[in-house]
Amino acid sequence: MNKISIMLAASASLLLGSCGQGDILFADNAVVNLSPVEGNPSAGYMDLHGGRVDVELVGVTSDDVLRLEMHETIEKDGMMSMEPLKSIPVPAGKTVKLEPGGKHLMIWGVGDYSKQRGLLKMILIYSNNDRIEIDAVIKKAGDPAPVAE
């Protein structure tokens, strides 16, 4: 092997070795907890995994809901409240959890089709113009908690 071939092989192995899970912007563990009270909003949770660069989640849409907003639970003067968010930062290579008591989705009017399927299709819209389609598992009030694997 000549020097150029060795350098190309070394460069290729470095590039391939640097590709990892932190290189891809994605979301998983998405769940929608349906409200037990008709007309009240349901809550959506998931894990957002950052890619190579910092981005922000700037919107979430679904064709089978009336309204969907990003919110955060905050404490002010000893009182808990929720405030709408315009965006959620997703740092490169990091995981941001949308979870109870923190950042989450408020979802009004989940359609019967999604309820029957047990999945709500959502599109996550990021500041870099990426759009990621995900299916969130729909859980009705009283459903058992998922079993850890």
List keywords for this structure.
149 residues, 2 helices, ten-stranded mixed β-sheet, disordered N terminus, mainly beta, LpqE-like, Lxx211020-like, single chain, Immunoglobulin-like, Copper chaperone PCu(A)C, PCuAC_sf
Topology:
Blueprint: H1 3-18, E1 26-33, E2 42-49, E3 55-61, E4 67-76, E5 79-84, E6 88-90, E7 95-98, E8 103-108, H2 112-117, E9 119-126, E10 131-139
Parallel strand pairs: 1-10
Antiparallel strand pairs: 1-2, 2-7, 2-8, 3-6, 3-9, 4-5, 4-8, 9-10
Describe what you observe in this structure:
Pfam families: PCuAC. InterPro entries: LpqE-like (IPR007410), Lxx211020-like (IPR058248), PCuAC_sf (IPR036182). It comes from Parasphingorhabdus flavimaris. This protein is mainly beta. It has one domain (21-139): Immunoglobulin-like (Sandwich). The protein is 15% helix and 46% strand. The protein has helices at residues 3-18, 112-117; strands at 26-33, 42-49, 55-61, 67-76, 79-84, 88-90, 95-98, 103-108, 119-126, 131-139. Strand 1 and strand 2 form a beta hairpin. The chain is globular and about 40 Å long. The relative contact order is 0.23. Mean pLDDT is 87; it is low at 2-19.
Task: Give the gist of this structure.
This protein is mainly β and 149 residues long. It is built from 2 helices and 10 strands, in the order αββββββββαββ. Strands 1, 2, 3, 4, 5, 6, 7, 8, 9 and 10 form a 10-stranded mixed beta sheet that branches.
